[in-house]
Specification:
The complex is a heterodimer. Chain A is built from four helices and twelve strands, in the order H-E-E-E-H-H-E-E-E-E-H-E-E-E-E-E. Chain A is mainly beta. In chain A, strands 1, 2, 3, 4, 6, 7, 8, 9, 10 and 12 form a ten-stranded antiparallel β-sheet that branches. The longest helix of chain A is centred in the N-terminal third of the chain and has 9 residues, at 5-13. Chain B is mainly β. Chain B has one domain. Chain B has no helices and eight strands. In chain B, strand 3 and strand 4 form a beta hairpin. Classes of the chains: A mainly beta, B mainly beta.
Chain lengths: 184, 79
Amino acid sequence: MILTDREIQVFLANQQIIIEPKPIAVRYSSTSVDLTLAKQFRVWDFNQIDKTRGEVIEPGPKFKYAEFRDKYTKKKILTKKGYVLAPDSFILAWTRETINLPNHSRIAARVEGKSSLARLGLAVHVTAPTIHAGFAGPIQLELCNHGLFSIRLSPGMPICQLIFEATLGTPDKGYAGKFLRQKR
Amino acid sequence: MNRVKAKIIRGAIGSERIAYITTAEGVRAEVLLSAAQTGSNHVLAAEVARDKSYVLIELPQETSSGDWRVWVNKNQILR
């Protein structure tokens, strides 16, 4: 079952869902809450990519995502002027809010795009919207501009929405993946 | 459900309307709606909260700037 705004607020008050900083009233809709864009983001380092052109990525047990990310991307900070995401560009960004879904709360979530941005061609994830029960940390966004126009991204802009779902039981094992308590 | 004062213009197809609602901050929120969700001078929207001067309303669709909910002046709510 999907939580409505009232239930989200009850869960927040009971610390069954933790969102820091807490969203303001206008960030809610009937069944979701908007999250905003953090200042930190990562862009691809094309100098480095050009040097290793032809390298084939082999995802699997030996693949180390953190090393890959650090090798091929550069950290950037969004200023007030924002960052212009050109058509067909792809960057890694974060939500400003940190969320925590304690295991016992029996809550999972999905991060989804906002229709106002989707109509411009902006996608906020690449087929990975699930926030598992037990997850804690800011949410990484895979921002991709599929549209025809450049889009200016500004710090603090509503960028995605979070939909909370009640699980049927308490999970045996909370989320313990490599992105638990991930940092910006 | 409340009737909230808005400027309504025809959309691209017959059943579509574009509504412009003035928010409490004085910003004009634009929202694309079906004709059934509008009247000649208003949109239908749910009241979520209110204080002395303002009402927080939830629109039937997201505005072009990405808001589902906006604060409007009390006098924007039609009786």
